[in-house]
Amino acid sequence: MPVETLDRESLRKWAGERLGRTFHAAEPMTGGGSRRRYVRLRDGDGSVVGVLTDDRREMRAFLAYTRHFAARGIPVPAILAEDLGRGVYVLQDLGDETLAARLAVWRGERDGAARVMAALTQVVGWLARIQVRGGEGLDYSLSPEGGRQDAVAYRDDVTLFLTHYVPARAPQAAPSAAQREALETLIERVAALPAETFCYRDFQARNIMWVQGGPVFLDYQHGRRGPLAYDLASLLFSPDTGATPGQREGLIEAYLAALGEVGVHPAPAAFRVGFNAVVLLRRLQALGAYVRIATEKQAPAYLEKIPPALETLRGLRAAGHLDFGLPALDDWLEVLLRRT
Asked: Is residue 17 part of a domain?
């Protein structure tokens, strides 16, 4: 049965046969990837989540990574049934509350700051274990986008920014030849960071479910080898996380301590330099993405994310965190971030 013919009804029957259950409801769920459809299947004993996809390579990676992580004690959803030929699998139902949603609730409570920090400290501790223990013995050949994060990926981040953000929002910041060379130098430095551990690549609060007081991780199927700092930067500077500068500093310390517990001891000063370089590239990528999505998908709400992103970069630059010994890059950032 080709995946194109599968619908909620055929999924309901197939899952019932595979699991020995009689599902009486098949409810579409929001939040799926562009090539994945999620359906909640219910019976008298509870519910499970069925997934339909026509991307077999992504499905194969997700299932293999899930089993690999589960064997190492990492909290991931249980796989209940699968059929690669049909492009369908069934997962444990983790509910609807993401870490992003839980953090938003806590931020509105009187004692919420402490809860936010406790949850994020727990998450960065798991991140260290995912990257190191989860990456050990992983078959990176399954990654749909190649086995290693390299300069091409970082160059794409900058290109997205220069192609979409600069022409539309900051034409005065079109880089000179010297400034482009400085950006390329920064890209090469980041690409030269040690990259022998697992890089989740989309480690954000909306890709983490919050279940019974703890995280369960999702959407790691595009992971590959990459620098430790990449995932930490993605989490700490995501708008969904909403971390303050002080919270970020505490979480970096908690993360480095967690790395030590799994036998990895990066020099703190060198780690922070690489981390700040990754942050800059990731923030540029985000700015470019906000403009592209707002334009191509007619979603102007994404433009509201730009001012806080710029303010974050201004704060980092004022604190000296974006000083990489590249004068041309610093001159460019001054123009880009100048208030108008």
From this structure: no
* Residues contacting 178, CB < 8 A, separation 6+: 328
* Residue 260, token pair as written in the block: 């030590």
- Kindly report the pTM of this predicted structure: 0.92
Question: Which residue, 175, 200, 203, 197, is CA-closest to 187?
Answer: 175
Burial of 278 (0-12, 13-18, 19+ CB in 10 A): buried
Please tell me whether residues 186 and 302 are part of one structural domain.
yes
CATH code for the domain of 46: 3.30.200.20
Report the pLDDT value the prediction gives residue 145, as an integer from 0 to 100: 83
Contact 125, 254 (CB under 8 A): yes
Query: What pLDDT is recorded for position 55?
Result: 93
pLDDT at 4 (0 to 100): 47
Regions of the chain short of the pLDDT cut 50: 1-5, 340
Total of domains in the chain: 2
**Measured between alpha carbons, how far apart are the two ends of the chain, in Å?**
59
DSSP 161: I
Q: DSSP letters along 31-59, please? A: ---TTEEEEEEEETTEEEEEEEES-HHHH
What distances in angstroms separate CA 318 from CA 194, 243, 321, one per listed residue? 28, 18, 8
Whether residue 155 lies inside any domain: the answer is yes
Residues 165 and 272 both lie in one domain: yes
DSSP annotation of 176 = -
Say yes or no: 182 and 309 in one domain: yes
Same domain, 55 and 164: no
Range of the structural domain that residue 53 is part of: 3-12+23-92
H or E stretch covering 169: helix 166-169
